[in-house]
Design goal:
The complex is a heterodimer of chains A (about 325) and B (about 240). By secondary structure, chain A is an alpha+beta fold. Chain A contains twelve helices and seven strands. The chains are: A alpha+beta (about 325), B alpha/beta (about 240).
Chain lengths: ~325, ~240
């Protein structure tokens, strides 16, 4: 309504001006019959009101659309009415929409191709990694140890790329099933044993075998991998322990990854889950890409797990994953 | 001797796997023409197939189905693809197990052993019992025994693992990291535990009248040093 009034403001001003002009002519002419003057004034007002009313009614949808923000593209495509202006607008919106969606489609296509390429490329890179790993297996000297270390880093990096590019088609690539937290954590820990040993950090496992949660093993183990990498990296040289604890909290099961390392500065806490955010710790530790925790949050939200993070600089960090449904153990 | 067919298009992986398999007493056959895998299969009639997923022409799933139409022999996939879907696909196309790249020899060998055992009832290592010997000091990893000059001591599983590493690397130094990695199975082991194991192993060696055999190399790790006899050439078998 406000937009309508503002839109018609010039018309109203012109109308008032015309009306006064009319009355002025009557008056200057000396022909001053109050009834006729009032009648003429009334007629003018009446037609102007009818015009505004019709105008408002036929263009109501346009004014409404223009003054309320839209949330979905589909809303824009609702027809605006039969008035010529409404029809013209409709057509123009449709043309824009078509152009826009064509462009979007092209980009999606490109993005998909890019993702496919990245995934294929990562897989191709895994073959030379395998070869190097196999070649190294019979070697046991400090030099091959350090090559193995670099190999681990490469592997971790490739995994991150792979999972990031997979995130797009997440819905086609996950299976929810009962997962035993204890054996999953154990498995991921053993995959990371070199990382722990090298940094002289040792895991402490306080996860009972009873905790079964509904999740996807593959994605969850990737999440744990990320958390472990962070926990170990930020503990190295400061604390020798990283704890894994599971317990019941209300209706859900919580799994905590606790380190007693350097912690996260307060000003960074709000932003650690943002993509590419590396913060102060990231500047100290060159390996951060800022994608780890972002991926953790993204994957968990898709798996329907909540993530919480508590940290105190100098004391350590707790990352907690809350699993909504616990699957009763089958007897 | 079991024959294992390797269907993999990376020549280096084939070569490494082949060498390793032969070391463990298997007969390894590689496929060179990827459009006639099935012909090769029927010709060689292997006991087990290692199959890659990404192959030129047809993929591993296709060849798996083809092989399944003529044979029930164990088929193990080796692939860089590690999504759940790929694994499900493999199993649905008739595979028996799935190994993701990059892999360790240990895993491949263990899985091959278990598949052969299941399919043919043959026992894991086609070799005779393993024996690792350095200058008369012999370790029998399967029996958990260490012998020297008619004398024998029993070992725990972990002690045997550590000694196997030390003996096979002798006279080179084995780093603490490497030893810890070996120990680290389901339980997580810290440096103190490693110290305890080293002490116990020294005690056991002392029972065999061998003293000062495990030498601490500062900042590097441990070394098994031949301090006895005159035959100091390391023997492996």
């Amino acid at each position: 309504m406000r937009l309508f009034i503002r839109d018609q403001l010039w018309f109203l001003l012109l109308f008032v001006f015309q009306l006064t002009l009319l009355l002025l002519i009557f008056w200057l002419d000396g022909y001053w019959n109050p009834w006729v003057v009032a009648y003429a004034g009334f007629l003018c007002l009446f037609f102007a009101a009818v015009y505004l009313l019709i105008r408002y009614l036929t263009h109501r949808l346009i004014y409404q659309r223009l003054s309320t923000p839209v949330d979905a593209l589909e809303e824009v495509m609702q027809p605006l009415g039969n008035a010529p202006l409404a029809r013209a607008l409709d057509e123009s919106y449709q043309r824009h929409y078509r152009l826009y969606s064509e462009q979007l489609h092209r980009y999606e296509q490109k993005q998909r191709e890019h993702n496919t390429f990245i995934q294929q490329w990562v897989h191709q890179m895994k073959t030379p990694l395998s070869v190097i790993q196999l070649l190294l297996q019979d070697q046991d000297d400090s030099q091959s140890d350090s090559v193995r270390e670099e190999l681990d880093r490469l592997k971790r990096g490739l995994e991150t790329v792979l999972y990031l590019s997979r995130l797009d088609r997440f819905d086609r690539d996950f299976v929810i099933e009962p997962v035993s937290l204890r054996s999953l954590v154990q498995q991921v820990l053993s995959e990371n044993k070199r990382l722990f040993i090298r940094n002289e950090v040792y895991p402490e496992l306080r996860v009972d075998a009873q905790w079964l949660v509904a999740s996807d093993e593959k994605w969850l183990s990737f999440v744990l991998n990320q958390l472990i990498t962070n926990a170990v990296r930020y503990s190295a040289g400061k604390s020798r322990k990283v704890s894994f604890v599971a317990y019941r909290r209300g209706t859900s099961v919580a799994l905590e990854v606790i380190d007693y390392g350097i912690g996260i500065p307060k000003q960074d806490l709000q932003r650690v889950f943002q993509p590419y955010f590396t913060g102060e710790n990231g500047r100290k530790y060159t390996e951060s890409t800022g994608m780890g925790l972002y991926l953790v949050r993204e994957i968990c939200s898709r798996l329907d797990h909540a993530v919480e993070l508590e940290s105190e600089p100098g004391k350590g960090t707790i990352v907690r994953i809350l699993f909504t449904t616990e699957i009763p153990t089958l007897q | 001797m079991s024959t294992i067919m390797i269907v993999e298009d990376d020549p280096k992986i084939v070569q490494l796997l082949k060498a390793q398999l032969e070391k463990y007493g298997y007969d390894a056959a590689e496929v060179t023409q990827f459009d006639r895998v099935l012909e090769d299969f029927t010709e060689r009639n292997p006991d087990l197939v290692l199959l890659d997923v990404n192959l030129p022409k047809y993929d591993g799933f296709y060849w798996c189905r083809q092989i399944r139409s003529v044979s029930t022999c164990p088929i193990l996939f080796i692939s860089a693809r590690d999504s759940k879907m790929d694994q499900v696909m493999a199993l649905e196309n008739g595979a028996d197990d799935y190994i993701t790249k990059p892999f360790d020899y240990d895993v491949v060998l263990a899985k091959i052993g278990s598949q052969l055992r299941r399919a043919y009832g043959m026992y894991a290592s086609p070799n005779k019992e393993r024996k690792i010997e350095v200058a008369g000091l012999a370790l029998y990893p399967e029996r958990l025994e260490l012998g020297y000059q008619e004398q024998k001591v029993e070992l725990s599983k972990k002690e045997a693992l550590l000694l196997e590493l030390l003996l096979s690397q002798s006279p080179r130094v084995v780093s603490r990291e490497r030893l810890l990695e070996k120990l680290w199975d389901e339980q997580f082991v810290d440096e103190n535990t490693l110290n305890v194991y080293i002490t116990r192993m020294r005690a056991k060696l002392k029972e065999l009248n061998l003293d000062g055999v495990i030498e601490t190399v500062r900042g590097a790790g441990y070394r098994l040093k031949v301090t006895w006899g005159d035959d100091d050439a390391p023997l492996h078998s």
